[in-house]
Amino acid sequence: MTTSSRSDSVGDGGRGSGGRDLTKLSASELADRIHAREVSSVEVTEAHIQRIAEVDGEINAFLHVSGEEALLAAAEVDKSIAAGTVASPLAGVPLALKDVFTTTDAPTTCGSKMLEGWVSPYDATVTARLRAAGIPILGKTNMDEFAMGSSTENSAYGPTRNPWDHSRIPGGSGGGSAAALASYQAPLAIGTDTGGSIRQPAAVTATVGTKPTYGTVSRYGLVACASSLDQGGPCGRTVLDTALLHEVIAGYDPRDSTSRNVPVPPVVAAAREGAKGDLAGVKVGVVKELHSDNYQPGVISSFDAAVAQLKDLGAEVVEVSCPHFEYALASYYLILPSEVSSNLARFDAMRYGLRVGDDGSHSADQVMSLSREAGFGPEVKRRIMIGTYALSSGYYDAYYGQALKVRTLIAQDFDKAYESVDVLVSPTSPFTPWKLGEKVNDPLAMYLSDLCTLPTNLAGHCAMSVPSGLSQDDGMPVGLQIMAPALADDRLYRVGAAYEAARGAIA
pTM for the complete prediction? Predict the structure, then answer.
């Protein structure tokens, strides 16, 4: 289905009191109504479960739907609210969880045959915080296998389709979470961002996604792709919704050795302040190296219009140069595969997961080899081989060691830029969503979609994608990326909310 809006692909959805479609309300609106007892969490959750049943057969955003468990959690929230207790500002609002976070009541597959049907004995910290906040989990969302990809075509369970055009990709690796939001199957979602896997799907589905500062959202129970880059984060349809979810999942966790023991930035207050539409005193830097004639024309025109809007809101806009950003792609695609090679060594068929050839006629090494051959898809195998080579004797210094030096230079570029500006902006992705299958056999073309997002991961800073409209080229969504220094996540929400309010609704 090809359409320049989602109206044909989302239907009417469930309706609550007042007749308004519950699946079309923002998470903050749903929370207000649930807490005022105008509608129950069970009603809201039922409406979204119905929505999933109606549309996900075509979109394939979910790998597992936890309908019964979500309704039980919603019922508990309703009981608590009736007793005068509200667990969190989002209590009762259901959510879709990327299938890379462990859950004790649903499989965690990471989009791979290697973990098909595997149920974790423990909840990830993010999962536990969602439960403690009274947020019913609707299910686990589709993703590129082990979070490796930019299109959600690398999932072992079939691709997810973009709700704006079912013939196009929804981004990756977290395309399932973004598509669930864009098709109104969930009002909130959780993703992970290793090189843009929250922000790029948000951009191409006209949703909002934030990559928090590295170390501020626990990675305990997040199945590792590249440990120095991975970061869980919030996804929503509005900046405020995303901020509310950010505050639920962020915070120190002693079980994560990389967790920062610092206060959570006041992201909700910043979003509410930004929505007033005044950016006077804010200095915005346009990154010269992330504005190219090689980008899709509709992306550039949408970005330029967004920058003009920021000026109209009172922001001072200047151009800044980050000269080492041009080496970010090469650096990233050495560091990430190297960490993948190390992290995925644990999937050895000896302790858990897929086991092939375990009939007594094969050695342990043969079982391991057969299982990894059958369990991993082509992109995962490609990255394991690249990473193993980059880490091998005689090549470590030439490849991995050099990539780490470039990473340092990129971080220094950011530091210098932030001496003169508060935030940096760029397109989120150089391209709008492409057709399914169009780039699946061209890894380099796929990797180029991460050009704008991955510098932030290399530096460990924070960034957000907020919709900037529809491309004049093909009517597909475009995203504005806002970047800020480490632990300055609140700046993203202030600028993002101000721009969102001024931009207005997207068709």
Answer: 0.96
